[in-house]
Amino acid sequence: MLTATAAIPPRGTSTPRRFALLALLSLLAACKDNLPPVTPPAPEPLTEPDARIVDTPFKKAPRPIIGALRAPLDKLPQVENFELVGYNPLPNPGDTRPRGLNGPTAVSGNCLYVGSRVGRRPGTGADFGTPALPPELLILDIRDPSKPEVVGALPTLLNATSRELRTIPERNTLIVMNFRETGPDSSAVNNYQIYDITDCRNPVLKQTIPLGVDRPHEFFLWKDPRDPGRFLLFSAIHLGTVREPSLRVFELRDPPNSPISPDPVASFTLSPAVPRTEPIDPGAYRNDHFVFNAERPATQRNNVHSMSVTPDGARTYVANIHAGYYILDSSRLTQGLPCTPHTVTADATTNKDPNLCLRKLDPEPNARVDFTPPNAWTEHSVYPVPGRPYLLVSGERNGVDTCPWSVGTILDITVERFPQVVSRYLLPENLEANCYAGGPGDPALGREFSPHSHLVFPNLFFISWYSGGLRAWDISNPVLPMEVGVYVPKPAPDIVEPFRNSPDVWFWSQPLLYNGLIYIADINSGIYILRYKGARADEVPQQGLHLSNTNF
Fold it and tell me: Could you give the count of Cα atoms lying within 13 Å of 429 in the half-sphere of its Cβ?
């Protein structure tokens, strides 16, 4: 029924105009029964024919909480709100095919560095019937980001993976973190190498921090805002036969040339109050986390996986493999005040000592945000949101048969001793309901959907998500994170040595922002240089180098 209430002129309007309006409304009412029926538009066909797939009801960005379902391999690329600016396949020296097994990235000046995930050149070694050649850190000229060009290859350590890289551009310094990939553990393969990159195409090794049998994993590089020549390298000891302390801090003075002590200036461990390994009831885990791989852990590891440090150095946020997340007071260490260097947590009284260099903010050893079990993943990443009382955390569960892999969580740390979960962010592949034969989590697809490394701004973050590619999330409302960008390229067809023998997409590396463009490597296919064009693109800095594993 039509109503004229909203359209009738107010009192005082001329009578002829009111009569005309009423006449028009009467005519419309008389005609409405004779109008032809309106046929609603046909619904768009589903891109995925399998009706069992659980997906977000939103088909276009933004999508709240649950992001976009990954398109099938033969339907790629899948792009929303990103523009491809440049690409390079990252071949071995003398070749044109993508080498595969690409590792981390770093930038200084006009040079981009890309490390390797293996301890030999891809395509060499026993499996290929050739001697294993040393792996290389590829060097690209990015003066023109639309045409990145490989201009050099720095041989790195045979049998070691150059798994993490950082640069200090104003000091012409490159830091390469190596750890054993094959063979025995020793300082020859487990170390940090410090290079002078005054000529960024020709790095010169200046010194090494040896770690012996201890393998480093993730590290955070903190620059002292009060002393620009002082840097603290926060290192996790993660793989192999881990020896505590698994959080160690090394001091670098005026790198790359000044000598660096091999002894940490500070360290932290939860043990023995929380043992490095302890038995766990396999029945404590969710049954639907073991659909394709029925092997449940009977022990859990409680050593450090990664960490982040606030710009002022007052807080260090720690991700522990199976013991969750917790916060350290690191203010005495970073301010250069006298402090007790090594924290060994014996009980609930240990961290009450105000003179510790690294002190657990809540001294109770078991006061941690702990999701495992019942979830089967390991805790991986923890990043503060700049200028806001929130942490972005996420797990990791490697393998193509470990659906639903892991998810991300946003924690409110307004009261630091009592972090609160405010929301989660995930992809449809991370829903337990999608772990079935023929579904998005089927191991036959050769994929993994673990969130991995973040690039965080106050209202927006970018994250590598293995086979989920690069994703962008709006967190202006942290209770309702919204996916606002997707970049999943079509993989290169001919990889010298593909990761896990899979032809799929593998975005693992830390996203870097350099002069307004995002640099990210696919393990198989090469380096991608992207421009983000979605929501809050105006908040993305257009100058300088930005990454979330340093404070500068």
Answer: 28
Q: What is the average pLDDT across 195-213?
A: 98
Report the alpha-carbon distance of residue 290 to residue 426 in Å, rounded.
Answer: 18
CA nearest to 527, candidates 515, 539, 551, 510: 510
The structure tokens listed for 140 are 């690209």
For range 169-189, the mean pLDDT: 98
Q: Residue 49's pLDDT is what?
A: 63
Model confidence at 22: pLDDT above 60: no
Give me the residue label for tokens 């104003």: 170
Which tokens hold the place of 102? 């690409």
CB-CB contact of 442 with 454 (8 Å): no
CATH of the domain at 180: 2.130.10.10
Q: Which residues pair with 196 in a beta bridge?
A: 173, 204
Residue with tokens 């959907």: 449
Burial of 298 (0-12, 13-18, 19+ CB in 10 A): exposed
Q: Mean of the per-residue pLDDT values for the chain?
A: 92
pTM: 0.90
Q: Which amino acid appears at position 137 of this protein? A: L
- Residue span of the structural domain in which 136 resides: 60-546
| The pairing of beta strand 359-360 with beta strand 454-456 | unpaired
Question: 12-26, 104-118, 204-218, 270-284 — which is least confidently predicted?
Answer: 12-26
CA 332 – CA 313 distance, rounded (Å): 9
Q: What is the pLDDT of residue 47?
A: 52
Q: Per-residue confidence at 12, pLDDT binned at 50, 70, 90?
A: very low
Residue 40: enclosing H or E segment and its boundaries? none
Q: How far apart are CA 397 and CA 130, in angstroms?
A: 33
Number of domains in the chain: 1
Which residues make Cβ contacts (< 8 Å) with residue 185, sequence separation at least 6? 212, 213, 214, 215, 240, 241
Residue 263 class from Cβ within 10 Å (0-12 exposed, 13-18 middle, 19+ buried)? exposed
Residue closest to 395 by CA, chosen among 312, 305, 316, 481: 305
C-alpha separations of 136 from 114, 160, 378 in Å? 9, 11, 30
Given a cut of 80, whether residue 42 has pLDDT beyond it is: no
**Which residues are CB-contacts of 186 (< 8 A; sequence separation ≥ 6)?**
180, 212, 213
Do the domain assignments include residue 11?
no
Examine the pLDDT at 35 and tell me if it is beyond 80. no
> Which burial class, exposed, middle or buried, applies to 387 when counting CB atoms under 10 A from its CB (0-12, 13-18, 19+)?
exposed
The predicted structure's pLDDT at residue 29: 43
Nearest to 55 by CA among 68, 43, 65: 68
Joined together, the tokens standing for residue 26 give 């009467």
Q: Is residue 491 part of a domain?
A: yes
Which two tokens mark 197? 């990159």
SS3 32: helix
As a whole number of angstroms, the distance between CA 180 and CA 239 comes to 9
Phi, psi of 32, rounded to the nearest 5 degrees: -65, -30
Burial environment of residue 54 by CB neighbours within 10 A (0 to 12, 13 to 18, 19 or more): middle
Residues 163, 177 contacting (CB under 8 angstroms):
yes
- Residue 521 makes CB contacts below 8 A (sequence gap 6+) with 90, 102, 103, 104, 105, 114, 507, 508, 509, 527, 528
Domain assignment of residue 176, yes or no: yes
Q: Does some domain include residue 2?
A: no
